[in-house]
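Both lines are given unchanged directly below:

***
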Amino acid sequence: MRIVLGVGGGIAAYKVASLLRLFTEAGHHVTVIPTEAATRFVGTATWEALSGNPVSNSVFDDVHQVNHVRLGHEADLVVIAPATADLLAKAATGQAGDLLTNTLLMAHGPVLFAPAMHTEMWQHAATQANVETLRSRGAAVLEPATGRLTGSDSGPGRLPEPEVIFDAALALVQGQSDYQLPLAGRTVTISAGGTREPLDPVRFLGNRSSGKQGVALAVAARNAGATVRLLAAHMEVPPPAGVEVVPVETALQLREAALAAAADSDVVIMSAAVADFRPSEVSDTKIKKRDDSADPVITLVRNPDILHELVELRNSGGHAEGQQLIVGFAAETGDSHGDVLAYAEAKLERKGCDLLVVNHVGADKVFGQDTNSVVILARSGSEPQEAAGTKTEVSAAIISRIGFELNHVSPRA
């Protein structure tokens, strides 16, 4: 694939060297076009060495090749990183003052902007209007990451990690030429892993969840343009780059984190395996096994129904805009009283969430595996949707369905 990598004049330009390496190691032909300001941060020699191609930012170099026209025409993909406030403004208003802005005007393929700037610059009405203009024309504009900025303060405005931009770029190119990231500008909270309920300082009640499906959902939501918050219970896999991680252990801790996170979330996906019960008492010391004592009796109490609470909070106007999509997960087994889907449909009615992703679980199914097979049920009554394959593929289907619900269906009261 032929990629034009435009580099804006921000300190985050140094991170783009890693993005360039990801593209070249994947076998793509990359032409780097830095702005004049970008070369003050990273010199052209670095870009030439890493790309293996000559680098210029002037329309007057190699005039016989008409680069300001040719590069945009030939590119299968244009990626701008960091996309500074200045570059976003020039792109939105169609300026053509250097080789990069000329190339943007000539680009026939998909274009991806990865913004990086100070928080106030990103949140300024002019920048937000420019982003909306670019998105309305079919360009994909990622949300910046949140974290430490150049100075001592923190906030939204960090360049997304190179791996995040790389994945988003490939996802973009695999779609149609008018593809837009379906969750761009959205905040998505996802719970993942299994909760652990302590018995004593050593022991706990837990479950078999590995967190693989929740992490795959976080990656899919991130690649769809969302700002992702991952409520991470016990997981056997590391959290992905480019998402905010909130560690939790127990169901009560997850409840507190989920209710707080829901306040600014457009989507809440409760994919964690939450313990239904917890010990009524937790010993401060390890419970000893003695020959002269009776076997311990452990009394369990119910944990709160977090998913139902989230729905009630949303329906009572707890969400700032009164609009929020809530997705539950159901790990079910059938028995003599009903099959998996019958139990799942009853759970959907009882919980009141918008979508319910149903797993048929067992000793060798779902938990800890790399593959999954689910059925997505909708409260709207639409036909059940099946998805199967790797957990990455299943997550892509779930996030795609969420994007459709957000963009085509009116939010439920």
In short: The chain has 13 helices and 19 strands. The chain has a mean pLDDT of 87. The chain has two domains: 2-174, 187-408. The CA atoms of residues 152 and 292 lie 61 Å apart.
